[in-house]
Design a protein that fits this description.
By secondary structure, this protein is α/β, with parallel strands linked by helices. The protein contains ten helices and seven strands. The chain folds into two domains: 186 residues, P-loop containing nucleotide triphosphate hydrolases (Rossmann fold, 3-Layer(aba) Sandwich); 53 residues. Strands 2-1-4-5-6-3-7 form a seven-stranded mixed beta sheet. Strand 5, helix 5 and strand 6 form a beta-alpha-beta unit. Helix 6 packs antiparallel against helix 7 and helix 8 runs parallel beside helix 10. The chain is globular and about 80 Å long. The chain starts with a helix and ends in a 6-residue tail after the last helix.
Length: 280
């Protein structure tokens, strides 16, 4: 019996290593967390990497809509899940983090980031958060699905379906370069090869319909691009003339072959480094 018990203990230990038990929920003393699996756990983020809301230029309308929706949720009022979609580098993830900071300053709101590859575990995450007094903003950056990717089915049930549905204290925000979260050729392929094309396409694109708000981000104008950089210079105390800034910033965008909020920040980072200014 002793040898059998020892064998069973080794088997149990091996199973724990392969699939460790979930850890207990934290005390939620921090404002932001990252969801991990194997084992399931929420890791606190003491300092969130984000830009102040006032420095996000050229997205006033979507910023205000997102701010109002988040404020409603934090106050315990009805609010919609949000899909922020559109051009790369135009501040989709930045505005989510900045809005969270603004709202959290007045009403406690926890930001929980979940990676796209961990979407199948989102039901377990919700079970951890369900019924708690805190309110949680779930955030998935760069959400999209490719061919033969069935992860979207897990998210569909969470957003709007299932018996339990989404907990009242949880809201879901996602960013994507694709409005329907799936590549156009994938949608077209479903339409051309399915026995019932309409039903096949509907199954693929209906996920985005679960988001009550769609906020579009479009390429910025040159004036907005320059205004972004000027705002960074003023905020961080970088002294540069308008003529020099314009010449350098336009040359920078030309070497990158793109113009966006991300490119504006990359130029400013280079400028601050050349001027010996730290960005805290």
């Amino acid at each position: 019996m002793g040898r059998k018990a020892e064998t069973l203990e080794r088997i149990a230990a091996a199973l724990d290593r392969i699939s460790p038990p979930p850890l207990k929920a934290p005390k939620f003393t921090e404002s932001a967390y990252i969801w991990h699996t194997q084992p399931d756990r929420l890791e606190a983020v003491p300092k969130v990497n984000r830009v102040p809301l006032d420095l996000l230029v050229g997205i006033d309308r979507v910023r205000d809509i997102l701010l109002d929706n988040t404020r409603q949720f934090a106050a315990g009022l009805p609010a919609n899940n949000v899909l922020l979609w559109g051009a790369r580098g135009m501040g989709k993830s930045s505005v989510v983090k900045a809005v969270h900071a603004r709202i959290n300053a007045d009403a406690p709101l926890k930001l929980v980031e979940i990676q796209r590859e961990d979407i199948p575990s989102i039901g377990r995450l919700l079970n951890l958060l369900r019924g708690r007094a805190e309110r949680f903003l779930l955030f998935c950056d760069d959400l999209s699905f490719d061919h033969d990717d069935s992860h979207y089915k897990s998210l569909k049930a969470v957003l709007d379906g299932g018996i339990e549905g989404r907990p009242d204290n949880v809201l879901f925000y996602a960013t994507s370069n694709r409005r329907h979260l799936m590549p156009r050729d994938m949608i077209e392929n479903e339409r051309s090869t399915a026995i019932n094309p309409a039903e096949a396409v509907e199954e693929k694109v209906s996920l985005s319909d679960r988001f009550g708000l769609w906020l579009g981000f479009h390429p910025c104008s040159q004036d907005d691009y320059l205004a972004m950089i000027r705002g960074y210079c003023d905020a961080f105390g970088v002294d540069i003339s308008d003529e020099t800034l314009r010449a350098e910033a336009i040359e920078w965008q030309q070497t990158r072959g793109a113009r966006s909020g991300r490119v504006a920040w990359q130029y400013f980072t280079d400028l601050a480094g050349r001027r010996g200014i730290k960005l805290d």
